[in-house]
Write a structure and sequence with these properties.
Radius of gyration: 24 Å
Largest sheet: 8 strands, parallel, barrel
Structural class: alpha/beta
Oligomer: single chain
Length: 575
């Protein structure tokens, strides 16, 4: 059934309705667990679910696989995102034919992010430069078979410098043949309400669903605002700033604000909301429960994070300690992005490094210079960890406050040629309320092992590996290069906890860990960022050649010092 028809039925009922959005997980275990999660969330009664599409078709196969399961197995009308950037006609047709074969009639036509390895926007065969081109092509090639949705931007597209022109671009997309609109997320209900009034005043009558994203964590929220420039009410910003060291309080605020925002939208006559889940379940469930929308899939929200039981495929088991739906809803409720549990559907959602370089060529050269030697790279990383520059190709934000404790050592090792991507100091029973290092509920204590993840130039790697091997009784390491070679002293199938917390009345919580799966899930992206950086320069330039050569020769290494009682011992390895 076409989503436009379902949306019309929902609007005619005069009742509030909702939809969900998911993204393809990075790991097989994450996908298996997402199926388990979607099965439960489907019982809540979403009008549709949507699945995102990676830039240039990077997640094409997994997106289609996930869409097929939602549509065919779980029986939920499914919208497949489709971006046209860096997609030629053959790729677009393959995606659309795959959707047809899976019984999917609904497409959200998007421009998408800029392509990797490209400095400028270029139109592929067929002129797919913008979403309107994709809408027109689908209508010309497939007629009315597909129900086509487009994105709306209540605050204007982030790249737009002219709000009125941006609105005209939106109108053109609808007039090209769109059947419904899903808006970009907003944190200020008034922004959406006024924009929707403008849409209706223009004579647009297709359904418009408001995008809502409950705040899941302070860091993911901070990064989202940094990248999208979405407006945030000052009251919400201040309350999140006050609660930022209490993960549960942040999540509670996110639910509270989302509930208030949806109620304000409903009071203004907006019935439909599109909930971006980030592949997490509990906050969305709590929002719907508070609004009286959809039946609860389990008894109570349940804030505890119980132990995890896994099947042989990596899916959550429903036996042993993981018996209630409430428990299965929250086992990964505090994801930690790059360093979360690779079995979680949300693994990597919060702060993936290298997701896409945000500078143009001129901006990159101005901030990161024109590196031609290893010393140039070392100095660049050192300037970043000392706060002289605010970003790197692998990190679009300044370092967090907790790294100040190890700032001098970070500067030293980066100047020695160990280019750090991530790190943390050892902690031994710091109060969970600590403003810098605390997290989780109040009244607890948090612990963490010192770790460093860095690139190591090929010429230095051999001696560094020898030191790691000599310290194998204390240190766990993972190392890989761009060609796919992999080395570790970790036991097969076992992970290493990096951070854990002990809280009153709760099981020990381990939100941060590293294992082979999570390490390798990011290897390709880490090395790809070198190539993206190189693409900022002319292909045959000295800088581009140097960066590509460095990517081919260096190793990505993660080092964990398991003796958290010896806070500074890890730095002896970096010589």
């Amino acid at each position: 059934m076409k989503v436009s028809d379902k949306l019309k039925q929902a609007e005619d009922s005069k009742q509030p309705y909702f939809s969900f959005e998911y993204f393809p997980p990075k790991t097989e275990q994450g996908l298996a667990n997402l199926y388990d999660r979607i099965e439960r969330m489907a019982r809540l009664g979403p009008v549709f679910v949507a699945v995102t599409w990676g830039a240039g078709g990077a997640t094409a196969q997994r997106t289609l696989e996930l869409c097929s399961a939602c549509q065919g197995v779980f029986g939920v009308e499914t919208v497949m995102h489709l971006t046209c950037t860096n997609m030629d006609v053959a790729q677009v047709d393959a995606a659309l034919e795959g959707a047809k074969a899976a019984g999917i009639q609904n497409i959200l036509a998007l421009r998408g992010d800029p392509p990797r390895d490209a400095e400028y926007w270029t139109a592929c065969e067929g002129g797919f430069s913008h979403a309107v081109d994709l809408v027109r092509y689908i209508r010309e090639k497939y007629g009315s078979y597909f129900c086509v949705g487009v994105a709306g931007y209540p605050e204007g597209h982030i790249e737009s410098t002219d709000a009125d022109q941006d609105f005209e671009y939106f109108v053109a997309k609808v007039e090209a043949g769109a059947d419904f609109v899903v808006s970009q997320l907003a944190y200020d209900a008034d922004v959406f309400i006024q924009w929707e009034k403008r849409v209706r005043a223009r004579g647009i009558t297709v359904p418009v669903v408001a995008g809502v994203l409950p705040v899941q964590s302070y860091q993911s929220f901070r990064r989202l605002v940094f990248l999208t420039k979405v407006a945030v009410p000052e009251s919400l910003r201040e309350r999140l700033e006050e609660a930022k060291s209490n993960d549960q309080a942040v999540k509670d605020l996110g639910v509270e604000h989302a509930v208030a925002m949806v109620r304000q939208l409903q009071a203004a006559g907006v019935r439909g909301v599109h909930l971006t889940t980030l592949n997490l379940e509990n906050s969305v469930q709590r929002v719907l429960d508070a609004l009286g929308m959809g039946e609860s899939a389990g008894a109570g929200a349940g804030m505890a994070l119980p132990g995890r039981a896994m099947t042989s495929t990596g899916a959550m088991a429903s036996t042993g300690a993981m018996t209630s739906t409430a428990e299965r809803r929250v086992w990964d409720d505090f994801p930690n992005g790059r360093w979360g549990d690779a079995r979680s559907p949300a693994f990597g959602s919060a702060d993936a490094y290298g997701a896409m370089l945000k500078f143009d060529a001129q901006g990159a050269a101005r901030v990161w210079g024109r590196p031609c030697t290893l010393d140039d790279v070392s100095e660049l990383f050192a300037r970043y960890v000392t706060g002289e520059i605010a970003s790197l190709p692998w990190s679009d934000e300044p370092l967090r406050a907790e790294t100040e404790r190890i700032g001098e050592e970070l500067a030293r090792v980066n100047r020695l040629g160990f280019w750090t991507l991530a790190s943390q100091p050892a902690l031994d029973g710091v109060a969970s309320a600590d403003a810098t290092h605390g997290w989780g509920p109040r009244g607890g204590y948090v612990y963490q092992k010192a770790f460093v993840e860095c690139f190591v130039a090929g010429a230095k790697f051999g001696s560094f590996l020898s030191r790691l091997q000599s310290s194998a009784s204390r240190v766990t390491y993972y190392a890989a290069n761009r060609q796919g070679d992999f080395l570790t002293n970790a036991h097969a199938g076992e992970g290493t906890a990096l951070t854990w917390g002990v809280f009153p009345g709760r099981a020990v919580v381990q939100p941060t860990l590293i294992d082979k799966i999570s390490f390798l899930a990011w290897r390709a992206e880490a090395f790809q960022t070198w190539r993206e950086w190189a693409a900022m320069f002319a292909h045959d330039s000295k800088e581009a050649c140097f960066l590509r050569e460095t990517a081919d020769e260096c190793w990505l290494v993660n080092v964990v010092d398991n003796d958290y009682k010896q806070a500074d011992a890890i730095w002896d390895l970096f010589q």
